[in-house]
Predict the structure.
Amino acid sequence: MAASHWLLTSVLCLLPFTAHVSAQGCSVDNNRPSVSENNPIGYVVATIHVEPGFTATIDPTSPDASFFMIQDSKLKLTRSVDYEEETLLLVSVVCENAAGESDSLEIFVTILNENDNSPVFKQTNFTEVVPEDTKVDSTIIAREELSASDADLDIIYYELTTTVPATDGYFAIRGVNNPEIYLQKALDYEKFKQTTLILYARDRPVTSTDPTNTASATINIIIEQADTKPPWFLPCTFINEERSICISNLYTGRVNMSEMATEPLILEPGPVYAIDPDYTINERIIYSIVSGNTDNVFFMDTDTGNITMNKPASSPDSYLLQVMATQVNNIQKYSIANVEIKVINKSNHAPYFESRIYNGIVLVNQVPGSFVFQAEHPSSPLMITAVDDDFPDKVNPNIEYHINDNTDFTATKDGLILTNVVLQSPGTVTLEAVAIDVVSLQKASTEVVVQVVLATDVSSTNNPYSAQDMAILGGTLAALLLVALVFLGVMLYKQYGKKVNNMMRKKLSKKTSKGYHNQSYKQDEQPDVSPTAHEASEKGSVRSATDVQEQPALASVFPITEESESLPEASVASTVVFDQEKKEDEVEEEAEREKEVKSILKTDRQAANDGYKAVWFRTDVDPEAGESIEVIEDNAVESDDDSDQDLQRNEEEEEEEDDDKDHLHRGQGVSFASENSSVPAAEVAVNMSRADSLADDSSL
Ligand SMILES: *[C@@H]1O[C@H](CO)[C@@H](O)[C@H](O)[C@H]1NC(C)=O
Ligand SMILES: *[C@@H]1O[C@H](CO)[C@@H](O)[C@H](O)[C@H]1NC(C)=O
Ligand SMILES: *[C@@H]1O[C@H](CO)[C@@H](O)[C@H](O)[C@H]1NC(C)=O
């Protein structure tokens, strides 16, 4: 019907336009009115002028008579008209009078189109599986499938959006009027595995202010992993932000010299193992050694990657194997990793600790890096030692020590236990210390029980000499020793001034400063030789440990304490100070007492008594004396003026220098190991007032 009306409309358009049409008895101003579609019911199309005596009726045979009615001489529409169904209505109005005269008026009603239809997609829900390796610019969904139609025959404007965050930009449409979807950017399965696109179709441009009808279609995109990546050896480290490249570290293993392992080698950090990162595909991987397999010593299992031996290693050189993992389906998808295999001497024995348990003691509030001391001998740093029966002297140079389960303490390579933090509260800490042979990787462990004590608690501990006391005494004694030395020097100078001076000068020219700092003595008797040694904490004795002798580095390892700032109040007392006047008196007494006990001052060398060290004076220089004879030099000896003032100054200078050298005077200074280890550490007994030290604290 619509089609026929179209035809009719075309024909009518060719006819001459007559605005006013009349028939006998009736007329209308315009017999070709137009009406917008979707009109209200009763819409007046035309007013009919009917002459008196005539009546106007609708000719029921006219094509569209059913659309019209006449009411009060008005031609009205009886229903709403849809342009998409009717574009032209034709109605005949018959005018008749009682005498039977009649005529008819043809009225053509043109229906005007309105934008009353939305675009329509043939399909509103799509699901597309897109391989990860789809080429950029490939068409994902064709235009025909996605084009929307519009009953108003409007031009359709398209827009594509996505509802999944971070998946923008991968898919696009070809143009605003071409809804074909294509891949705009390369896909990555690791980034997203699916997304949802919404395609909008509008019958006006998005910028138009006209009323616009819109339709939408949903496109679900599922990304399918493709075989894009080569194998990765595990464990591996990502080297790019996209995490698409993962590089493996070195695998390491060890074999015994001249011994053929029967089992697959155990490697660190794990067995040679590679995966296909395209895990949904998980292509089969095979392994091979590509280089470094000198003499074909090693064999790699193609399927498992396990490395076994074909023959024993005959040279101590390490093997650096390059191994390859490749996909069976495509050998160009491969990765290379390195395997270092060390050849070591067979270790038949694991190291072991001679002591099952070590007891240590340390003060609270010590700076990190302070020694833990031996609970039984608080003057000596605690040192753990593992022995190894594979070595003739049981000393395995490859052993390192670690503390396993506690970060408050550390162990040095030598087995000394140090604090790692400032220990705040007293208590008992049990540590597991481990000795590891870094070549054979054999281990031993032991227990270290450390008592953390308050400085004030020290006197109440069971130890005859607390660490604190030892520390105080260490400093005190070192100072006194110096005083004694200076004094001796002065006395000697007075007695043998010239000879010594000559000797010193000769020696100096050979040995410059080497001998200068030698304050070490050794006495062959226990500290209790001094009658005053046991007088509580005010007097005491220090015996430097023999193991300190074995570790000449000890003194220099000793922590430098920031004195009163970091030390508890009590330990300030340990800072060595002198009351010079008193001290000199004491030194004289001291020297006498020492002589009573056993003089270390000799006029000749006592070579017979091994281990016994003494100061002796010689009148000539024996060139064969070698390393075991050290010369004590003193500024006082060099000085022409031997007055007390000068002596005092020299002492102070020496003290300062010693502080810098090995901190013997500091609170914790307990050992007398000098840099010059040829003269062993000394045992000395002195007597000193602690009160004096306190009183003169500021003088240092
Ligand atoms: C090397 O020798 C030690 C001690 O006999 C043994 O425990 C170890 O398994 C050997 N290493 C290899 C790789 O066979
Ligand atoms: C040998 O290969 C198997 C399979 O990959 C693995 O489970 C095993 O750990 C490997 N053995 C060694 C000693 O690497
Ligand atoms: C292995 O032992 C030999 C002799 O037994 C020795 O000369 C060599 O230094 C040792 N190698 C290592 C790394 O300990």
Q: What stands out?
A: The mean pLDDT is 75.
